[in-house]
Structure formats: structure tokens, C-alpha cells
Design brief:
Layout lengths: L1 H21 L3 H17 L11 H7 L3 H18 L2 H8 L4 H6 L1 H30 L5 H45 L4 E4 L2 E4 L2 H33 L2
Antiparallel strand pairs: 1-2
């Protein structure tokens, strides 16, 4: 009888030993993930969201889902703002004639910018909610929050500052277009030259053009801030 039960006792004794041998890998995974965030994101200028290698994903364990919060947002942000360059090109005007003839283009760009802002706000809110639900030890959280600020909050907020400035510039352009159309009898446009016979019309148009130029300058400054955030310069 003793012999027949001995293997079962040995098996029962071996299980705790196997569990101890496997151990808890969370501290190692946390350390690896923390170092990755610090050296690959926080310590580097600009916005960097490296794609994990299979070895890195294995080393981080369940913390790969924490990193996915950042990577998923950046993928969505890239998709949302990708049309920005072509929209700006489409809405660009180089003369008063352009302001009149490309009015429909500017309206289309307005709609595109509005859609872009809405998508970005929605995605940021979704990502902020996912971030708030993460359960992290304090040492990891301190570094993760810095990486999150660098790769999510800062670029999103900067884009959401730039887009309304672009919208305002388009609004000003359309006001100029509407004014030119309403007063075309008093305004003679010949290429880059413009002649206005009525002093009142000239003063009003100059005011609109000054507002447009001021807003365009603000957009240029905002684009410079955005480039500085993305490139870290």
C-alpha cells in the first residue's frame, strides 16, 4: 500500500517546487517595459512610437496591452491627420482671383478640417479613458505617464490647437470671397493687381485682407509648433 501511494505523494510535493521555479515574471516584465519607455520614448526628442519586436513583446508580457493604448492612438491619429497636407494644398490661395474662383475648394477644406478635429477629439477621449483604467505599479506609472504625455496628449493637443486656426483662416478667406463677389462692380482685379474706386469699399476690403493675413501668420506659427512637437526641435 505504501508503495502504491508513493508516486502520488511525490507528485503533490513536486507541484509547489515547479510553481516556485516558474516564479512571478511580473517584476522582470515591468522592468523591461519601464526601460523601453524611458530609453525609446521619454529620453528621445520628438514623438517616437517604436513597433515592438517579437522578443520585446515576449519580454513585456501583459504590459504589451498597456503599450497598445499608445500605439493604437498613434495609428488612429496618423490616419485622421493624413489628409491635412493635401487639404492645405487644396485650400491654398495665392491671389484675390484664387479667393473668388476657389471658394468651393475652401468650403470643402473647411469640412475636412472639421471632420479631422472631430475624429481626433473622439479618439483622444477614448484613449484617455483606456489610460485611466490601466492598473500599474507606481514606478511604472511614473514613466508610462511621461511616455503617454509625449506620444498622445502633447501631439493631440497641438493638432487640436492648429486645426481651429486653419479653420479661422478659411473663414476669413471666405469672407473676402463673399465681399469681392458682393462688390465686384466696384473692384477691378487684374492678376495680382486690384483697383477700387470707392474709398469705403477699399477700407472695408483692406480690413478683411488684414484679418486674413493675420490669421494666416498665426497658422504658420502653429504649424511651426506642431513640427517642433513631432520632431523635437
Amino acid at each position: 500500500m505504501n508503495v502504491s501511494f508513493r508516486p502520488h505523494w511525490l507528485l503533490a510535493l513536486s507541484l509547489p517546487l515547479l510553481l516556485i521555479a516558474c516564479g512571478n515574471k511580473e517584476p522582470e516584465q515591468r522592468a523591461a517595459f519601464t526601460q523601453f519607455l524611458q530609453t525609446r520614448i521619454v529620453d528621445k526628442p520628438g514623438v517616437h512610437v517604436p513597433k515592438l519586436t517579437p522578443d520585446e513583446a515576449k519580454a513585456f508580457g501583459d504590459y504589451t496591452t498597456h503599450y497598445a493604448v499608445i500605439t493604437d492612438f498613434n495609428g488612429a491619429m496618423d490616419a485622421a491627420v493624413k489628409p491635412l497636407g493635401s487639404l492645405l494644398q487644396k485650400g491654398a490661395v495665392h491671389s484675390l482671383s484664387d479667393v473668388i474662383t476657389r471658394r468651393d475648394d475652401m468650403k470643402a477644406v473647411q469640412s475636412g478640417v472639421d471632420d479631422m478635429s472631430a475624429q481626433l477629439k473622439q479618439q483622444q477621449a477614448k484613449t484617455d479613458s483606456a489610460h485611466a483604467q490601466l492598473k500599474q505599479p507606481d514606478d511604472l506609472k511614473a514613466v508610462y505617464d511621461k511616455a503617454y504625455e509625449r506620444t498622445v496628449t502633447l501631439p493631440a493637443n497641438t493638432f487640436l490647437e492648429v486645426l481651429p486656426q486653419i479653420r479661422k483662416t478659411l473663414d476669413s478667406s471666405l469672407k473676402v470671397a463673399d465681399y469681392l463677389s458682393a462688390h465686384k462692380a466696384q473692384i477691378d482685379i487684374n492678376g495680382p493687381r486690384m483697383a477700387v474706386q470707392d474709398p469705403k469699399v477699399q477700407a472695408e476690403l483692406n480690413g478683411l485682407l488684414q484679418d486674413l493675413n493675420a490669421k494666416a501668420q498665426i497658422v504658420q506659427q502653429a504649424q511651426g509648433r506642431l513640427q517642433s512637437v513631432i520632431l523635437g526641435r
